[in-house]
Write a structure and sequence with these properties.
Shape: flat
Number of domains: 2
Largest sheet: none
Structural class: mainly alpha
Oligomer: single chain
Number of helices: 6
Helix content: over 70%
Distance between the termini: 49 Å
Number of strands: 0
Length: about 110
């Protein structure tokens, strides 16, 4: 088999695997509704915690060194303010993106 064929087989297998993992949540959706209340709150906090863990290093340490003054931290503060004020994910993303692009152009 050629490398291209092997690559397409791997892509197909990974795609099917990803689909099965995601579809498995639909198969157990009725059991998820039965989660006790004391576990729902911690489970609801996982996505924001993961998002913060992904974003914080990219904002504060883009080159490996701590950077608290610059375009990225200022844009993150703007996005954080919009998120707190509006509670809108779309507004937060749009303001953060616009602030990051604008500040990168202004500050270099």
């Amino acid at each position: 088999m050629s490398r291209v064929t092997i690559a397409w087989i791997v892509i197909a297998v990974v795609g099917v695997g990803t689909y099965l993992v995601r579809a498995s949540f639909l198969a157990v959706a009725d059991r998820v509704a039965a989660i006790p209340a004391r576990w729902r709150t911690p489970l609801q906090l996982i996505p924001p915690a993961v998002l913060a863990a992904l974003i914080a290093p990219a904002v504060l340490r883009p080159d490996g060194a701590l950077n608290v003054v610059g375009a990225r931290p200022l844009a993150a503060l703007a996005a954080l303010g919009v998120a707190w004020w509006t509670r809108s994910v779309l507004a937060t993303i749009l303001v953060g993106l616009a602030a990051a692009l604008g500040l990168e152009l202004l500050l270099g």
